[in-house]
Automatic annotation (TrEMBL):
Name of the protein: MBL fold metallo-hydrolase
Keywords recorded for this protein, A-Z: Hydrolase
Lineage: Bacteria, Bacillati, Bacillota, Clostridia, Eubacteriales
Keyword Ribonucleoprotein annotated: no
Keyword Hydrolase: yes
Gene3D superfamilies with a match to the protein in the record: Ribonuclease Z/Hydroxyacylglutathione hydrolase-like (3.60.15.10)
Biological source species: Heliobacterium mobile (Heliobacillus mobilis)
GO molecular function annotations of the record: hydrolase activity
Residues annotated as domain Metallo-beta-lactamase: 20-217
Length: 255
C-alpha cells in the first residue's frame, strides 16, 4: 500500500492493484473564497498542487467522504472523467450524478454488511461527526471508509470528523492496520473544532496501540488552524511520534 498526500484531504492511494483519488480538490491556489466566520480570511486553497493534473487523473476510481468544496470542488467536477467510478455516501449520489458522472456507487450501509466489493477490494462505509452538537447537524452527513483487500493492510480513512463514538466503534469493529485522520482542528469563530485536533489524534493512537496513523488535512484551507508542527509537538510529548506520519504535500508513504 502506498499513499501520496497531494494537499489537504486529497491523496492518491495505491491499493489492491488500483489507484484511488481520495477527496479531490483540484483548484489552483487562492481561486476560492475563504470559509466564512473563520479567524483566517485568506483565500483557498492556501497552497498550489504539488503535482500535475495529469498525475491526479491517472487513477482508477475516486473515493469521496463528502462533497464540501474542500473535498470535491469545481475543479474536480470539471476535470475528472465522467466515466470514472466514484464511491460516495448515499446522500451525495444525486449531486454527483447531476454533475454528469455516470458510475456513481453509493456505499449504502454503515456496519450492517461487509461493504461494497469492487475489483477485489472491499469498501466499508463508517460514520463520524463533523463537529459537536447543533454545529455537526448543520455541517451535514460525513463518512469514512475501511478498505480491505488480500495481501494489503486494512486501511481506514476517517473523513471529516472529531473523536466520537462512531470512530471508536469503527476502530473496535475493524481493527485497521493504518488510519488516515483528517486533522487541522478546522473551526469557525464559534462552535469548536469540526475536524480532529492533536488530542483527537492521540485518542485514536491510544485506542489501538500497534496501529500506524497518517494525519492529513493540514495547512491548506483557511479554517484549519492547527499546524503540522503543533501536532508533532503534542505527539512527541506523549511518546507517539514513532508511529504517526504527518506528510508534507506531495510526499509518498509506503506501508
Amino acid at each position: 500500500m502506498r499513499i501520496k498526500l497531494i494537499r489537504h484531504a486529497t491523496s492518491i492511494l495505491q491499493y489492491g492493484g488500483k489507484k484511488f483519488l481520495v477527496d479531490p480538490m483540484l483548484s489552483s491556489a487562492r481561486s476560492m473564497a475563504p470559509v466564512d466566520f473563520s479567524p483566517n480570511t485568506q483565500k483557498n486553497p492556501l497552497v498550489e498542487l504539488p503535482v500535475t493534473i495529469e498525475e491526479l487523473l491517472d487513477v482508477n476510481a475516486v473515493l469521496l467522504t463528502h462533497t464540501h468544496r474542500d473535498h470535491f470542488d469545481e475543479g474536480a467536477a470539471r476535470l475528472l472523467p465522467k466515466k470514472i467510478p466514484i464511491f460516495c455516501q448515499p446522500e451525495d449520489e444525486r449531486k454527483i450524478a447531476d454533475l454528469g458522472f455516470t458510475k456513481v456507487y453509493p456505499v449504502q450501509e454503515t456496519f450492517a454488511w461487509e461493504g461494497f466489493a469492487w475489483e477485489g477490494i472491499n469498501i466499508i462505509r463508517t460514520g463520524g461527526q463533523h463537529g459537536s452538537g447543533d454545529l455537526a447537524k448543520k455541517m451535514g452527513p460525513v463518512s469514512g471508509y475501511i478498505l480491505d483487500a488480500a495481501g494489503e493492510p486494512k486501511v481506514y480513512f476517517a473523513g471529516d470528523t472529531i473523536w466520537c463514538s462512531e470512530i471508536e466503534v469503527a476502530l473496535n469493529k475493524y481493527h485497521p492496520n493504518i488510519s488516515v485522520l483528517y486533522g487541522g482542528a478546522a473551526q469557525f469563530l464559534e462552535g469548536g473544532p469540526i475536524t480532529m485536533t492533536s488530542e483527537d489524534v492521540i485518542q485514536v493512537c491510544r485506542k489501538i496501540s500497534n496501529m500506524n496513523v497518517v494525519v492529513v488535512h493540514l495547512e491548506a484551507f483557511n479554517h484549519c488552524l492547527e499546524t503540522r508542527d503543533e501536532i508533532k509537538r503534542a505527539l512527541d510529548i506523549r511518546g507517539l511520534s514513532d508511529r504517526v506520519w504527518i506528510p508534507e504535500n506531495g510526499e509518498l508513504i509506503t506501508f
